[in-house]
Amino acid sequence: MATKKTQILILPYPIQGHINPMLQFAKRLASKSRHLILTLLLPTSHARSISSHIGSINVQPISDGADQQGQQFQTAETYLQQFQRAVPGSLDDLIRLERGHDQPQPTILIYDSFFPWALDVAHSNGLAAAPFFTQTCSVSSVYFLFKEGRLSDEMELPHGIPRLEQRDLPSFIQDKENSAHLLELLVDQFSNLDEADYVFFNTFDKLENQMVEWMARQWQVLTVGPTIPSMYLDKCVKDDRSYGLNLFKPNRESCRDWLCERRASSVIYVSFGSMAILKQEQIEEIAKCLENLQTRFIWVVRETEMAKLPSEFVEWNLSSGLGLVVTWCNQLDILAHETVGCFVTHCGWNSVLEALCLGVPMVGVPNWSDQPTNAKFVEDVWKVGVRAKEDEDGIVKSMVLEKCVRAVLEGEKGEVVRRNAGKIKRWALEAVQLGGSSDNNIAKFVTGLALKD
């Protein structure tokens, strides 16, 4: 008798940093069983420019309302509000339609943890439901403790979390008044978590072992990370060489060719992700730092930020030839290259995780959201980098940044950081290899689905 096929629906928050880890998780699931059909649900405003398949993963458009109104959204917050209004109904309609066909039935919805309402939609249609947290267990626990009114200077934090100063907290907790909507979004992740059939985290056990154990006592937690393409880790998922989805166009060949001409561990890589908008003064301070260091560098400056580059810096770089300034790049290619010795990063979790997996020391210049807390862990828990201290206006000055970069690249501190980075790189590989903690959790989930059928 032929084994029945099972469809898994996956609903990410529709930005690059949330789509990619959930897409990678889908690829890992597909590699575990040929009887699984993975369908990534992307809003129609995104799906128009994306293929109907990304490798073995189906891409299914779901109406976010923007297609009906043809409107442009001024901020991420206004789009999210529109998304929250339109997608619950669209998701309900899509599930009902899928269940009315003879094709393999969806049995579970894996949704971004930002969308707790998705659990209610799934359960009302007879599907299991599992949130996927794109942030660490430790950061997520801070939001949970805040929700419970248990986050204070006096409290003893759960295992694995160091004592956090105000500057180490997620920015939405630091500035509650101006971040009310986004803070509500993050706190609401826990509103119905007790009802979830599984709770997935993009982390791995050894990285947060005490915190993972604490959270697993609260919910049905499974760590399934790191969710980066298999080519950069275990190389066990066929043809998994990239995320497969880019909302920005990378300068891939120019970066690779430029790096091949440099010596090992000599290049500084500077990037602040796909969303950060830096102040003019901060960009000027970074430019000064790079000039003072007189070291080879690649600096990613998105097209929308290019006008902020000081003309003196542009002229200096043209004459010195020390650096390469690009509007976007394949970050994994850069971090995996032997010539890169330091990553100056905003400490978004995807960027930190990529650096951890590839053993690259970091200098943290956090901007918002979970980044300050991630930077704290980079420096004081995992000890794979340093955090640059900002001034009273929130600006990291050039001399401060220069000192941090030199600390990571040179001397005794640099040796310790590189040694720790190499150790965690091995942990990451172990987690996804056959029999590793994340591999076992993924296999356990897939086996559970088969038994339910």
UniProtKB/TrEMBL annotation:
This is Glycosyltransferase. Gene3D superfamilies: Glycogen Phosphorylase B (3.40.50.2000). It comes from the Eukaryota. GO terms for molecular function: quercetin 3-O-glucosyltransferase activity; quercetin 7-O-glucosyltransferase activity. The gene is UGT2. It comes from Rhodiola sachalinensis. Belongs to the UDP-glycosyltransferase family. InterPro entries: UDP_glucos_trans, UDP_glycos_trans_CS. Keywords: Glycosyltransferase, Transferase. SUPFAM superfamilies: UDP-Glycosyltransferase/glycogen phosphorylase (SSF53756). Its EC number is 2.4.1.-.
